[in-house]
Write a structure and sequence with these properties.
By secondary structure, the chain is mostly helical. It is 76% helix and 0% strand. It is built from 12 helices and no strands.
Length: 259
């Protein structure tokens, strides 16, 4: 039976962990172990939609700029170059997701994998602070960040964490790495929602539908606030602070599984 409290809880978890570099998929996998309600496919689809809505609103000016450049076929402007970079970054993400989809899905039921992945995320976040750069994004940066986003399908690997850290390790400006990470998430999030909708064969009952909507609303509100916080953290060059949390959470999950 769908629980409003569980739905709100999962929506809040999604809203916080989707943006902060601590892995939303990993935390949702952990949370489901302690909740009586097993969320239906519909719930995951609407969580993706809430994520997409937050990004579209937060980066609305960049999206308008990109759209205008594409409409004019002006790929030399900033908006046009961003459009090309998003395409370049999306290609490796799509290939990795398609080839390893079944393998990655199996990891959602293996909390040991989640724990190890959280430790790996923490390491990448920590080492990103060692690099200081102020240059603009280029084609190779986009491709490597796209690979990082593809790997982040593994639960416990933070999408925002590994994509932004990859940009920082490449000495990309902090603000540029932040912006590109989330603009790149738009086609990936849309693709994930479409892929999961293919598994949706039955309409949800009324109670489940209400829970889904409530979870989506809570995810949107909390997600927008979390994204604001993350931008300030990155611009203040404090992203590596989250390494401690990832190490602690990953260690606890591993210990829990071993014992």
């Amino acid at each position: 039976m769908a629980s409003l409290i569980d739905a709100i809880a999962l929506g809040i978890i999604q809203g916080i962990t989707e943006w902060l570099p601590v892995s939303s998929s990993g935390h949702l996998a952990i949370a489901k172990e302690f909740l009586d309600w097993q969320p239906p496919v519909l719930f995951h689809i609407f969580l993706h939609i809430s994520t997409l809505l937050v990004v579209l609103y937060f980066f609305r000016e960049d999206i308008v700029q990109i759209s205008k450049a594409v409409a004019k076929r002006d790929f030399r402007s900033e908006g046009g170059r961003l459009a090309l970079f998003i395409i370049i970054g999306s290609l490796p993400t799509a290939v990795i997701g398609y080839v390893f989809q079944d393998v990655f899905k199996s990891f959602f039921d293996n909390l040991l994998v989640v724990g190890v992945a959280l430790l790996a995320t923490g390491c990448l976040l920590y080492f990103s602070k060692q690099r200081e750069g102020k240059r603009s994004l280029n084609h190779m940066d986009s491709f490597l960040i796209g690979i990082a986003q593809g790997i982040a399908i593994v639960p416990g690997i933070s999408r925002s964490g590994v994509t932004i850290s990859t940009g920082l390790l490449r000495k990309v400006d902090h603000g540029a790495a932040f912006r590109f990470s989330f603009l790149l998430s738009i086609p990936a999030t849309l693709g994930a929602a479409i892929a999961e909708s293919s598994d949706l064969t039955l309409l949800a009952d009324f109670e489940t539908s209400i829970a889904v909507i409530v979870g989506m609303i809570s995810g949107i509100i909390v997600g927008y606030l979390s994204l604001q916080i993350l931008r300030k953290i990155i611009l203040n060059k404090k992203l590596h602070w989250f390494a401690i949390y990832c190490w602690a959470m990953g260690s606890l999950v591993i210990i829990f599984q071993i014992l």
